[in-house]
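re: ur question from earlier - yeah i can do the single chain one, its not a big deal. heres the input i used so u can compare w yours
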Amino acid sequence: MKYIIPFLFVALSFLTSCADDKNSAQLQREQTRQVNDSILNVIHNNWNFNIPSSSSVVKKETLDWQNWQVLLQELANKPTKSLLSYRAKVDNLTRISDELLLNKPENLNKPQINARLNNLNTNIKHLNSFISLQTIPVDKVKKLVSYISIDVVSIQNQIDKFTALKNIPFESGEKEMIEQVTDTTRRANFNFENKLKEEPKLKTLDKRRGSLQLKDKSSRGLLLIEPVK
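and the output i got, formated as tokens:
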């Protein structure tokens, strides 16, 4: 009998401890769920890419650029209200952004446009990194959504600008002058490159000549030295 009471006390303490641990785990899960729901609400309410409709010129220039069309469609379609949906959306945007860099129309393969595409790609990848975290920094996500909108608009404006410049008619004799300057530049570059290629050969020849001259002088010098008596 004297052993039963301590045993019951230990068993009761163990059961109480297990119940407390279970309640604590449930409470922690509930708190995590509430935090995630709060974060999701903020992301969902701010997931708005403010991209105005592009001009008819830009639409024409990008009509056959399939990756660009897919990107605009993905940005316009809002995910369902779940973190899994948003993470899947950003994964998809990252893939499309990578493909944009690799597949560009030849007429849009310009340094200014490429720089803006790289910036867009970087911001989308930052968004992917933040939204994959267990605790999502919502302020950074909100900023990146805004930055991505700005990047897209900047790319559209740059395409519009290039197209406008391309369509400006040449004045009389201007085209021939540009072609002449371009041809002169090409020839100058060609001559410069050939000169760079020939320089090592010339240096080698100079060294050989110098070496021969030294040998010749040395030989002559030895002939002039009188033998010691």
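Helices lie at 4-46, 56-61, 66-76, 83-102, 111-131, 138-166, 174-224. not sure if urs matches, ping me
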